[in-house]
Specification:
The chain is mainly α. The protein has one domain. It is built from 2 helices and no strands. The longest helix has about 45 residues. This is DUF4282 domain-containing protein.
């Protein structure tokens, strides 16, 4: 985890430690919006069954697509920080020859 002092110092990145929390928050929001879309589509089925069914399929698909895209975004952020760590290790190993 990170200390409160890490927020005011630039020696260490805090994003890699809190990205998982933000990922789960995004998942929760995606699922809540998806459930809202499913309920909305069920009420739309009373007016037009075909349109409501299409909205139902779109809501379910959007949940899965949102989860996958949020995972890809979180992994991309972590990869950028990991690249930074590896470049720092390479720099330290070479001893700053350049």
């Amino acid at each position: 985890m990170f200390d409160f002092q890490d927020l005011f110092q630039w020696d260490r990145f805090i994003t890699p430690t809190i990205i998982k929390t933000f990922y789960w928050l995004v998942i929760a929001v995606i699922v809540l919006f998806g459930i809202s879309g499913i309920l909305w589509s069920l009420t739309a089925m009373a007016i037009s069954p075909f349109v409501g069914f299409i909205q139902l399929l779109a809501s379910i698909a959007s949940i899965f697509v949102g989860i996958v895209l949020s995972r890809i975004a979180a992994e991309f952020i972590l990869i950028v920080f990991r690249i930074n760590e590896h470049l720092g290790a390479i720099r330290d190993r070479d001893g700053g020859m350049h």
